[in-house]
Design goal:
Layout lengths: L3 E8 L6 E8 L4 H12 L7 E4 L8 E2 L2 H5 L22 E6 L5 E11 L7 E6 L9 H13 L14 H7 L11 H11 L8 H12 L4 H6 L12 H7 L1 H10 L3 E2 L8 H11 L16 H12 L3 E4 L2 E4 L1 H4 L5 H11 L5 H15 L4 H14 L17 H9 L2 H4 L9 H12 L2
Antiparallel strand pairs: 1-2, 1-6, 2-7, 3-4, 3-5, 5-6, 8-10, 9-10
Helix pairs in contact: 1-5, 8-13, 9-10, 11-16, 13-18, 14-15, 14-18
Length: 430
Amino acid sequence: MLRGFRVRLDLLDTMPVVWRRLDLPGDITLPTLHDVIQAAMGWADSHLHRFRTGDDYGSPHFLTVFDVQEGEDGLLEDDVRLDQVITREGDALWYEYDFGDGWNHRLVVEEVLADPPSAPICLAGEMACPPEDCGGIPGYEALAEWVRSGYSDARLPPAFDNAAHARQWLPPDWHPDHFDLAQTQAALVVASSEPAPVTGELADIAARLEYMGNRTLRIALTQPMSYEPAEVSEADAARLTETYRIFLDIVADGVSLTAAGRLPPAVVRTIADQTGLRQWWIGQANREDQTPPVTDIRETARALGLVSVRKGRLAPTAAVARIRENPVALWRHIVSRLPLGKDAAREAGWLTLAVAGSGVPASDWDGVVGDLMFTLGWRIAGFPDEPPSGDSPTLDVLEILAGRVRRGWRAPSKVDPAIAATARAAIRRT
């Protein structure tokens, strides 16, 4: 018979104690319990972890995938359920996170539940989780003392140059004595939810990020919007494809490009006038090499198979010539070509589709995708410690669909449901 457990989770050696009380189903696996502990405590899951059966480092432990790949022998945590390691009141399990800072936790059974919850629940808790990478217990204690003192210069931890440096480094509004039960429970819902299913290249990217300890993509795919339908109305299709339809109308049956392979000045001016670009663009908008938004339209239109170039002449493709007056068909054609590019650009494209489809606002796409690309090993040439830009041809397409050419460079902070549906449609077509 399936049982559940009411447990108390303590972060050891903290005073006052950082703790959480949780109701847990007994059939969750240890990797899921790891997710639960991360969410309940407030960790960012950016380091390795280990479950032990005793309170000392030499106690038997369960292996993670990383341990197995490092050549260790033992029982893989993926194959172990919680009710196989704790069974009765008073039983305990130890969890270590971040072997550098050494955050040790103890999970103790307070009550065996005959009616287990269907998903993990946080019932209570006290104190905020220490900031990641703060230097373990000594670093946490110094930060807590400084914050409790009202940010007194006399209490400033020696690791920081000044108070401004320290406050910029701390998580926003962090206070050691603050615990938000509702926020913690919301995090648990995400942590214990199955992400929206993905396949192919995106599934491979997701698996690599999970292995590397970055859960940002997984969290995005567990957001409610990631499960929503992936269709748009005729009105939304017309709005989203407006810039490309204007471009196709201006190109008409074909335009001869300049010797440099660019659009003629007269065509650039017409595009700027009809798309609304001229309303905000600083410049005459009569030369493509000085009007990047027009280049973005032309290059992405070609990558999407809306236009092609033959013998120096740019014209709509045969497939698009048949659907150019049908916004829904044109939208579906665009979706069928996403993501664009190869190698880094393609991986950034998949990530952009995933975060956009989950409801992340456009203003955050670049930063979120850049951080994920950094985890995957992509770097800016000459700056190995800096995350790359999240920019990609796919990002350009989504921003054009979202009205960037008419609106300007500033990305909206509100979610556009039609753009999110477009991203999901591109993901699900595989």
